[in-house]
Design brief:
The chain is α+β, with helices and mostly antiparallel strands. It is built from three helices and five strands. It folds into two domains: 39 residues; 84 residues, K homology (KH) domain (GMP Synthetase, Chain A, domain 3), CATH 3.30.300.
Length: 138
Amino acid sequence: MSHMKATARRTGTYRHMVDIRSHHVSADEPLDAGGDDTAPSPQELLAASLASCTAITMEMYAQRKGWDLGYVEVEVDYTPSERGCPTKFDLIMRLPEDATDEQLERLKIIAAKCPVHRTLEGEVMFNERVERLQLQTS
């Protein structure tokens, strides 16, 4: 089982630097939500995770099949849940016009098997705890 970790540290009003392995990603809120709009919001990063995971999963599958897809684009339109309405993800997968019907059908099925898609549609558990930061005095 794969284990992943991300740590968000405040760098502005709602701006955070997120450390993931040796990578750094910023998150912020738009101006109308009180942020400085210096980076995508966490919700937008969720849509980005689904879009990129879907694209990569299709590309890996095509590579294993020996299909040269060339350009692939995945757009995710994400509407968070509201009272009485579930969270909604609309995915549009744009593939080369010379892709065969069989390739399109197989890639659509494979796209739904990407790890982020499976996580979002599956059962999720949260373990939460709060810890006090130890202030560093010098």
